[in-house]
Amino acid sequence: MALIQQLGFGSDGWGSVLLLAALMTVALTLAALAVGAVLGAIVAAAKLSRHRSARLLGDVYTTVFRGVPELLVIYLFYFGGSTLVTTVGQWFGAEGFIGVPPFVIGALAVGMISGAYQAEVYRAAVLAVSKGELEAARAIGMPTFTVMRRIMIPQVLRFALPGIGNVWQLSLKDSALISVTGLAELLRTSQVAANSTHQYFLFFVAGGALYLLMTGVSNRVFNRAEAYVGRSFRRNFARN
């Protein structure tokens, strides 16, 4: 009974705190995925570029952020980012150490890692688009914007969506590493609750269950999105 009360939503329970921490984890992952989407699109364009220097830069980015441990990237962003902000602040007359908000550090660090994987997803999706359709569109004089809107973007979205789902799950797990910065996400909050009550097994299992819940809901959302995109693509193809 006492264990149930500790997970409850009363004054002595940690239930509401854990749920808020889970929402923080989702918000952090969404922000990181958005950062990664922008970076991934830019890097994918660079890797598909005709210019060798652009392809080289894209390869270096994906190699570094897929090869370096995620925790090391977070440490570099956390300490390096604070040092950089402090140095810039001192140029403008600020005194003392200036810390960067952990949420911002987490979104940028996990976003940079996510961007490396999303870049490969987008690159593969672009290469999967039928060249015959693009050549046919150009042959009939279809404007570039129309080609992108009616042919390229719908098919890239269709091919990339499963990979983006996998990147989301990866970023969701990587968000747990942001606990080292002190951000009250799910793992950090589970650890604080465990230390406060000395019920380590209970709260780490509860944290793991919430991660599994978020993963299960995410899988359902992405499966529905894939099914919707697939139906829309088949409907448009039949219409054309």
Corresponding CATH superfamily: MetI-like
The CATH architecture term is Orthogonal Bundle
Please give the alpha-carbon distance between the first and last residues.
63 Å
H/E element sequence: HHHHHHHHH
- Mean pLDDT over the full residue set: 86
Q: How many helices does DSSP assign?
A: 9
Strand content: under 5%
* Number of E-state strands: 0
Number of domains: 1
Which stretches are low in confidence, meaning pLDDT under 50 for 5 or more residues running? Answer: none
CATH class: Mainly Alpha
Largest sheet: none
CATH topology: MetI-like fold
Question: Mind telling me the C-alpha Rg?
Answer: 22 Å
| Helix-strand makeup class | mainly alpha
The general outline is: flat
The percent range for helix content is: over 70%
Properties at a glance:
240 residues, mainly alpha, MetI-like fold
In short:
With 240 residues, the protein is mainly α.
What's the topology here?
Layout: H1 2-6, H2 15-47, H3 52-67, H4 70-91, H5 102-128, H6 131-139, H7 144-174, H8 186-197, H9 200-239
